[in-house]
Design goal:
Helix content: 55-70%
Strand order of the largest sheet: 1-2
Largest sheet: 2 strands, antiparallel
Strand content: under 5%
Oligomer: single chain
Radius of gyration: 25 Å
Number of helices: 17
Structural class: mainly alpha
Distance between the termini: 27 Å
Shape: globular
């Protein structure tokens, strides 16, 4: 079998694959570059800077530290004397007149500090809390989730008992948090979610003819001549497709990490995940980033199986490609939610298996046991892979070229 998988890979790795790979690499990098260039920041003198160099200024102006009471009080004093305050509070609107949307070095910190005290959880990047509120931040933060979950439109609606269970878990979150500049890790999650559908479209272009007839990547009469040859063919093609998808995915991730390192840096890997994600899991940004990368790979394997299943069912590469592209576009267009039916079913889509994996807004209960969405995604993906393999096996028994 090991000798035949390379042969199947040779069918996949041809001149067209290289051209399509370069094209999609360019397309995937475009939104990353646009996002990185859209930043506008202030330096210490109050001068506005734009474009990629703004991230270095943002990093240099970030005051990092463990979020003790002394640190929080010092940050309040820094805010009072900062060049940022007039812009944040609307006293100066030069940035608006210039069409700028300023990013400030302590936005994430201030959003987190304001969380327990802002009704409807509107993001507020000012820091006008009292000394008492800052001193009691962790007590108020841990005690705010019953009310938050009662008013939040959670993906899986919670009962009062379930809200109580979640609130109790939030009470046990280790504190104090560690705050650092960690834009690279935040944009890793955002960028994966926003571009992985393009990567899946790339896989569809390459793998859509896996079981097609009248194709150099597909099937000929000889390989269908016996039951054993059909079984082996199935193993070879699935193996080769998974090997290709694995290589392609980690090349995709490597390029993204290189871009992030060059623009944002991977600084802040050890900062607390709670700065940006509402969760009761004690993790740092590196651990969460590795979780998202791993789930992206798992989603890739699921999508690979689904594309091959469509290929063996329809036997026509162009039809499979068209169906795949429409599907990936629709899933990217409609977000998960509790509104229309199409929003409700998005939770079952492999493309969303990297969306808010550990947040308390997407928890699932079995009795009194709570599971984060990452476990739901793993369960669903495993089912999809098993059903795809069973389906491909069944369809292969009835596969005829005529």
């Amino acid at each position: 079998m090991r000798n035949f998988i390379p042969l199947e890979l040779k069918k996949i790795l041809n001149k067209n694959t290289v051209i399509i790979s370069l094209l999609f690499l360019t397309i995937i990098l475009i939104p990353w570059i646009q996002t990185a260039k859209s930043i506008d920041v202030l330096d210490d003198e109050g001068t506005i800077h734009s474009d990629l160099g703004g991230w270095k200024i943002l990093r240099e102006r970030t005051v990092e530290g463990t979020m003790t009471t002394d640190y929080l009080l010092q940050m309040k004093q820094n805010y009072e004397n900062s060049v940022d305050k007039p812009y944040i509070e609307g006293e100066v609107d030069t940035d608006r007149k210039l069409g700028k949307r300023l990013t400030f070095p302590h936005d994430a910190l201030n959003w987190e500090l304001n969380f327990p005290y802002i009704k409807y959880r509107v993001l507020d990047n000012s820091l006008n809390l009292t000394d008492e509120q800052l001193s009691n931040f962790y007590v108020d933060w841990k005690g705010s989730f019953t009310e938050y979950l009662s008013t939040e439109q959670n993906l899986f609606p919670y009962t009062e008992k379930q809200i109580e269970i979640i609130s109790q878990k939030m009470q046990k979150v280790p504190t104090p948090f560690l705050f650092k500049y960690d834009s690279g890790w935040e944009y890793l999650k955002i960028g994966l979610l926003n571009t992985i559908y393009l990567f899946f479209m790339f896989l569809a272009f390459i793998l859509c003819e896996g079981f097609s007839k009248n194709s150099s990547k597909g099937i000929d009469k000889v390989t269908l001549s016996t039951k054993e040859s059909r079984r082996r063919l199935l193993s070879y093609k699935l193996g080769a497709a998974c090997v290709f998808s694995t290589i392609a995915y980690f090349v995709y991730i490597a390029i993204i990490l290189l871009f992030i390192t060059a623009v944002y840096t991977l600084h802040g890997w050890d900062s607390s995940v709670q700065i940006g994600t509402i969760t009761f899991y004690s993790m740092n940004q590196l651990q969460e980033g590795l979780l998202y990368i791993s789930m992206g790979y798992f989603s890739t394997l699921v999508v690979t199986h689904l594309i091959l299943f469509l290929s063996v069912v329809f036997k026509r590469g162009k039809l499979v490609l068209a169906l795949s592209l429409i599907y990936f576009y629709l899933v990217n267009t409609y977000q998960m939610g509790r509104g229309a039916l199409i929003e409700k079913v998005m939770v079952f889509m492999p493309q969303n298996f990297i969306n808010n994996l550990i947040g308390i807004e997407k928890l699932y209960f079995v009795g009194n046991t709570v599971f984060p969405y990452v476990f739901v995604a793993l369960f669903l993906g495993t089912v999809y892979i098993l059903l795809s393999r069973i389906g491909i096996s069944i369809w292969m028994r009835r596969y005829y070229l005529q």
